[in-house]
Amino acid sequence: MPKVAPKKTPMPEQSAEVRKKNFDEVPLGYSEDMAVAEAERCLQCKNKPCVAGCPVEIDIPAFIKKIAERDFEASIRIMKEKNLLPAVCGRVCPQEEQCEKVCVLANKFEPVGIGRLERFIADWEAGHMTAEVPELPLATGKKVAVVGSGPAGLIVAGDLVQMGHSATIFEALHEPGGVLVYGIPEFRLPKEIVFREVDYLKKLGVEVITNFVVGRTRTVDELLEEFDAVFLGTGAGLPWFMFVPGENSMGVYSANEYLTRSNLMKAYKFPEYDTPIAKGKRVATVGGGNVAMDAARTALRLGADESIVIYRRSREEMPARDEEIERAEEEGVKFQFLTNPVAYHADGNGWVTDVECIRMELGAPDASGRRRPVEIPDSNFKTPIDTVVVAIGNSPNPLIAQTTPGLKTTRWGTVEADPETGRTSKKGVFAGGDIVTGAATVILAMGAARLSARSIDEYLKTGTW
Amino acid sequence: MNKIIEKIVLSKDVKQYIVECSAIAQKALAGQFVVIRICETGERIPLTIADSDKAEGTITLIVQEVGKTTRQMGFLEVGDSILDIAGPLGTPSEIEHFGTVVMIGGGIGIAPLYPITKAMKAAGNKVISIIGARCADLLFYQDLMAAQSDMIIETTDDGTCGRQGFVTDALSELIESGERIDRVVAIGPAIMMKMVAETTRPHGIPTIASLNSIMVDGTGMCGACRVEVGGETKFACVDGPDFDAHAVNFDLLIQRLAMYLPEEKIADEHFCRCSSAKEGEKNA
Hints:
The complex is a heterodimer of chains A (465) and B (284).
Chain A: H1 16-19, H2 32-39, H3 49-52, H4 60-68, H5 72-82, H6 86-92, H7 114-128, E1 143-147, H8 151-162, E2 166-170, H9 179-182, H10 191-204, E3 207-209, H11 220-226, E4 229-232, E5 238-239, E6 252-254, H12 255-264, E7 282-286, H13 290-301, E8 306-310, H14 322-331, E9 334-336, E10 339-346, E11 352-365, E12 371-375, E13 381-384, E14 387-390, E15 394-395, H15 399-403, E16 429-431, H16 434-437, H17 442-462
Parallel strand pairs in A: 1-2, 1-4, 2-3, 4-16, 6-14, 7-8, 7-14, 8-9
Antiparallel strand pairs in A: 5-15, 10-11, 11-12, 11-13
Chain B: E1 4-11, E2 14-20, H1 22-25, E3 33-37, E4 45-53, E5 58-64, H2 68-74, E6 84-89, E7 100-106, H3 110-122, E8 126-133, H4 142-147, E9 151-156, E10 163-164, H5 167-176, E11 183-187, H6 190-200, E12 207-210, E13 226-229, E14 232-235, H7 236-239, E15 242-244, H8 250-257, H9 261-283
Parallel strand pairs in B: 7-8, 7-11, 8-9, 9-10, 11-12
Antiparallel strand pairs in B: 1-2, 2-5, 3-4, 3-6, 4-5, 12-15, 13-14
């Protein structure tokens, strides 16, 4: 093994004290020299385990090699062969679970900072050149409707136009991007970056229609009259609540609402923007995933003196990425582990004043392999708070399932689809992403979308189901 | 798209807009609504589809100027466009031949009541309408409602039009007169709908209320609009807006509607400053 720096080249970032008061992005990105230094750590393995670890099969050693050679234009071209949204993926993919987990360097040292390099090359492109539009194959004349403009929908549409098909994305909200714009906060994924990536898809010929609620404005069956195939990528948009007493008090939000107000509607800029949000001083976020981290950190930026995460298991079982948990801790988010809300109490006007929790202990492992939290009797206690964000998960919005006869769903409300092809029980209808898996990650949705695009292409060519 | 082709002042602070919006016009059914946003910095607000015309590809929206967004909308003129309109949203009203239906509208609630009244009439019901407002200036759609009703009663709190009193007074008299009522539909301020529910409850008359909770996306994604019906949490935007009025927790609805009152005041003041500054620029 040649001599390799044992640690990743550090990426500059805003200090915790400064960043917890603004909505600007936390990491500041690599300079060219930093990127080259990091790229030089890559061993250029012949068997490329990292590529197998990537749901969208980016030729990782190849794009990194070009960075090491300072041929950034060639690098971004290699990247975009497989991933049209590198600026997004470089920021929100859990690389430590995927490409970087299987990096050969990781046996001995820190793995190559693949995510950081992906982000670097995407940002370099935005700063240095007009995104090139590759030559597209002859139009096939086949039309595909893509429902939802989140990660899955964007990838499917991008792949399909590159196969010569026409793709029209239908988005229910007024901006394209799905969870990338309504869910993930500005400080983790600046919206400008999402719009840039969407603009690139538009340049490729993808049509985007906003304010179009499939299931209401038109049904899937009506789309099938006009389009040769339909891809459902509507995500997991229905927030779960715990249905404990007082949960409908004022000041209690779903994470979807809290984050949508802040991110999509820019409530953090109120009154310059019209949408209000409760700027609580003591905010409790319930849940242990990435969304909970986003909410707890948003609360600080909205001016909370205390932002508390309430989680029913312990830190080890938290589904959030380590990096997100660490950032939250650095910024001063407090964690109340092994506790679970049983009630919310409100003042005379109905505004929440306390969360009543019960203490938990960990029992035997459950179906997820994590130890099941069990209530400790008579251990209830109250914590004074003025805002609550319930971030315990989402399931798919039932609107499409309810309005599409012949589309089979599971008892969890997800759409049944072949994991290899995205084919549903209804001819011509494909699905991928959270609508199939339940709430998961951006990159898994993109991986499923890539498989669906291939199988849509095959269906459009053969007509066989 | 979304161009305003007609604007009419219906009453003090209430304006009617006919908007080109063919995709929604083709699908809109009585009881459904749209979510609109009028500018880049704007909020999303739900507005009932008061009427729609498939052939013309238009929908009718009625807006009462109560806050920043609705007042800003008041400045839009024929030829201007509404930036975003999504819909039709919500579960359509249940329309059947029930027999005799009493349609009750209070204030701006008369607007969403109208298309349901029309559909009830078309379904062969005997329609008795009771429409009310604080004063004559706030009443509108009397002629349209009368045309769809076998009988119409108008009420004003101050007696400046129709009989003096609340819509519930007229409803009580109707019930006491022995009129057989198969269904009541009430749309208006939450407190009015609550009073209607209390009036019909002892008589066991099925009563439907259309809930006007605060919404953001309007498609079931955020839960801002959650209401309690029969002890269960429901989303007004997708499970409603129509619910069994006897099962609705109106006190909770009234509380939740007040959630952003301080912010609404700030937004309103901010808007006044901005619009007077713009006015100043224009005059300079």
